[in-house]
Design brief:
mainly alpha, 9 helices
Length: 208
């Protein structure tokens, strides 16, 4: 009798396990489908905003996917960041977009800030003429990182980026010429506690 009563118990345990397993598989499939749909919609919008041909865009998508794999983020997340960066920066040539997003995400992870905030910051710098390409963005990132580290303000990186973003926007509205290096130097020096001349010398290396 004991064996007979044990069979339903075993069957119930197996059934519960199978149900959980199938439920987990179903959830994974749902997430995959959701990510695919999100990527498709995002890249369609991105293609339209860039005005890229099918061949050009296929190459761009492959590049973005390659960087997404390296960053261990979904293609949909990469697409959203790329779309936002292209829109804020006003890009028409997106050949270096994957590298831009990769740099922004790496910067964000290094300082514990949201990748969206980092990407938006570097896109705004591009839009306002502070940087002209991916290499400029990387030099700017290194200069800011070095300045905040020396000034002891790395824990407030989000505040530093917000201040520089606001300043860049006000500079762009006030003048149609290239960014004023002296003004940027004074701002960053004030935020980090460094000497203005030292910051200005660093800025000279990347401002177009």
């Amino acid at each position: 009798a004991g064996m007979m009563t044990g069979k339903p118990m075993v069957g119930g345990i197996v059934g519960a396990f199978a149900s959980q397993l199938l439920g987990g598989i179903g959830s994974a499939i749902d997430r995959h489908i959701s990510n695919v749909l999100r990527e498709s919609e995002t890249y369609t919008d991105l293609r339209h905003s860039l005005g890229a041909t099918s061949v050009e865009f296929d190459s761009l998508r492959d590049s973005l996917r390659h960087f997404a794999d390296g960053l261990d983020i979904t293609y949909g997340e990469m697409g959203s960041l790329a779309k936002m960066f292209a829109h804020v920066a006003g890009l028409k040539d997106a050949s270096g977009l994957g590298g831009d997003i990769s740099g922004a995400v790496g910067f964000a992870r290094g300082y514990g800030i949201a990748p969206e905030q980092s990407a938006q910051f570097f896109a705004l710098m591009r839009h306002n003429g502070v940087t002209a390409n991916e290499q400029d963005s990387r030099r700017l990132a290194l200069m800011i990182a070095d300045s905040v580290a020396k000034g002891g303000t790395s824990a407030k990186m989000d505040e530093v980026l917000n201040a520089i973003s606001s300043f860049a926007s006000s500079q762009a509205r006030a003048s149609l010429t290239a960014p004023n290096i002296g003004n940027y130097a004074e701002l960053i020096a004030g935020l980090t506690g460094l000497d203005v001349a030292e910051v200005s010398a660093n800025l000279e290396t990347f401002v177009p």
